């Protein structure tokens, strides 16, 4: 995915820092499902959807909702009227979002590449750059974070967040090592309990 931005510049949200190098792009985007969000702070429909997308992203990545962040990244591609509007919009969005700099030709290149004719639009991409969904706005509106596992399956990502079958009823995101850790804990706990019982039986 980082290859999509090779030689380009992305901005980190709420700062003037630039993510310039290919290595930094790789670290921010590699092995993640990428959401290219085409929007504008001037568009009423975009403002309503942006609040929804913000919540969507937080529920997949914020530790308040999940134990480990999902493999997803958002890059905002603006149709804002000015750099001030662009910055004002980003200040209301999650810190993990990246953005194409205001006025950068890359924004127009991405619009043409993915045939964006209206906003809001969200193009969902596999880590290799293949399109999963041409415009996921309606899907996000109707399903919320529940649509992410479908994208994850389509992208054939290594799932870092699976559960043992016994835990499906109480569903929550977990790391790939969590079942192993919990199984080890159960074994250790049983061993510890057995030792205590044996010590109790052997005492006078």
Automatic annotation (TrEMBL):
Annotated Pfam families: Thioredoxin_8 (PF13905)
Name this polypeptide is given: NXNL1 protein
Gene Ontology CC entries for this record: mitochondrion
Taxonomy, superkingdom: Eukaryota
Residue span, Thioredoxin-like fold domain: 31-131
GO biological process, one term: photoreceptor cell maintenance
